[in-house]
Write a structure and sequence with these properties.
Blueprint lengths: L4 H14 L13 E8 L2 E9 L8 H9 L7 E6 L11 H8 L3 E6 L9 H8 L3 E3 L4 H7 L1 H9 L3 E8 L4 E4 L10 H12 L3 E5 H7 L16 E5 L10 H4 L6 E5 L6 H7 L4 E4 L2 E2 L2 E2 L1 H10 L4 E6 L1 H9 L5 E6 L8 E3 L11 E9 L2 E8 L1
Parallel strand pairs: 3-4, 4-5, 6-14, 6-15, 8-9, 8-14, 9-10, 10-11
Antiparallel strand pairs: 1-2, 1-3, 7-16, 12-13, 15-18, 17-18
Helix pairs in contact: 3-4
The chain binds ligand AOF and zinc ion.
Length: 367
């Protein structure tokens, strides 16, 4: 049986379901499974599962448990190749076989060397029909953090920039100006909630004194780790970031030595330190991203400022760009955006365009 339009619709639904736990499954990707079978001639979803918070159980056994006996002869839609390894749970591919599923429709292949291709092989060896790569690009876009960590051994980087109508991101004197509106602010908080790490430079931390938490109603517990690039440990222990470090993790990437007296002061707030190499007084970014990945975190969301954004762009370490362009211009002595809609690097393609009230949002991904 070939892949049908209905297959693609169920896969699209599975991809949406997987988003429920995005950013909440630890080092595991959030993936989803739908079990669909015909009942009285009509296809019905009889089981659904999404990787549990913390990463286990996996999606498949949860969906199969809901389907029960109805899984026999059904089709399973999985956003990622079912696992083939004995981890803390038995291999999902074998669980699908045991449940008597007749057909598996899958989106992305798992690059995990314990799984890659083996999950499909287990299914096929048991006589299950397997369709690979259905809506793979869509699923891979959501799984980008996990895939980047697995394939490149580094964290995935999203650069967000709020840009004025005339291509500026702020005033040079540091005085704060509103560039984008309320809807954009909510969207940014939602993006924070789906990330593992929010990253800013110490200049922005000192100047803006931000919280960098997710403050959407009901999503307060979804604030990711806040990471400040602070080569010489300039972050004040009285900053909001430091004062809230006991509630929401604060990591400081620094090249300072462990006996630096400012370290003790910041450590007392609950902040943690990432010992980093510095080149020309700047934190070495590729190694930092490797380090973040090694800690099991996959996605970094860069929120400022211009220098940090520029540094990641120059080193070709940005995977996704989210531009929020406001309707107002910033007059006077203002800082140029390191990238605008007119200067997106060639390696990127536009994947979304939307209006957030008066603002325009454009999203780009590495092709
Ligand atoms: C699945 N279904 O829902 C997820 C999968 O440490 P473990 O044993 O939980 O295994 C982690 C690996 O499982 C992870 O690297 C990825 O290959 C896979 N994730 N697989 O069958 C799921 N989340
Ligand atoms: Zn599994």
């Amino acid at each position: 049986m070939a892949v049908s339009a209905l297959d693609r619709r169920y896969m699209a639904a599975a991809i949406r379901l997987a988003r429920w736990h995005e950013g909440r499954t630890g080092s595991n990707p959030s993936v989803a499974t739908l079990i669909v079978r015909e009942i009285d001639g009509t296809p019905v979803i009889v089981g659904r599962g999404v990787t549990a918070i913390g990463g286990r159980p996996h999606a498949e056994p949860q969906a199969l448990a809901e389907a029960g006996k109805l899984a026999r002869g059904a089709t399973a839609y999985v956003t990622l190749e079912p696992c083939a390894h004995h981890g803390r749970t038995p291999p999902c591919a074998k669980t699908l076989v045991a449940a008597g599923v007749a057909r598996v429709v899958a989106a992305a292949t798992d690059p995990d060397e314990r799984v890659s291709g083996r999950g499909y092989a287990i299914l096929r060896a048991a006589g299950i029909v397997v369709e690979e790569g259905v809506l793979a690009r869509e699923a891979e876009s959501d799984l980008a953090g996990y895939l980047t960590r697995r394939i490149k051994n580094r964290a995935h980087v999203t650069l967000k920039l709020a840009i004025s109508k005339n291509g500026k991101i702020g005033r040079r004197d540091g005085q704060q100006v509103a560039i984008t509106g309320e809807i954009s602010r909510h969207q940014v908080h939602a993006l924070r909630a789906m990330s593992d790490v929010i990253l800013i430079g110490v200049g922005t931390a000192i100047n803006d004194d931000p919280d960098l938490t997710c403050r959407l109603p009901g999503l307060g517990d979804r604030s990711p780790v806040r990471l400040v690039l602070d080569t010489h440990l300039r972050l004040p222990s009285q900053s909001r970031l430091a004062m809230t470090a006991r509630n929401v993790p604060l990591w400081i990437a620094t090249a300072s030595t462990p006996d630096d007296p400012r370290r003790a002061e910041l450590a007392a707030t609950g902040a943690e330190f990432l010992a980093c190499d510095a080149h020309d007084g700047k934190i070495a970014l590729p190694e930092l991203l490797d380090d973040i990945a090694a800690r099991g975190l996959s996605t970094v969301f860069i929120e400022g400022g211009a220098e940090v954004a520029q540094a990641f762009l120059v080193e070709d370490l940005v995977d996704r760009i989210v531009l929020l362009t406001g309707e107002r211009a910033i007059e006077g002595d203002a800082v140029n955006a390191p990238v605008t809609r007119d200067t997106i690097p060639e390696a990127f393609r536009k994947v979304a365009s939307m209006r957030y009230g008066a603002d325009e949002m454009d999203e780009y991904e590495r092709a």
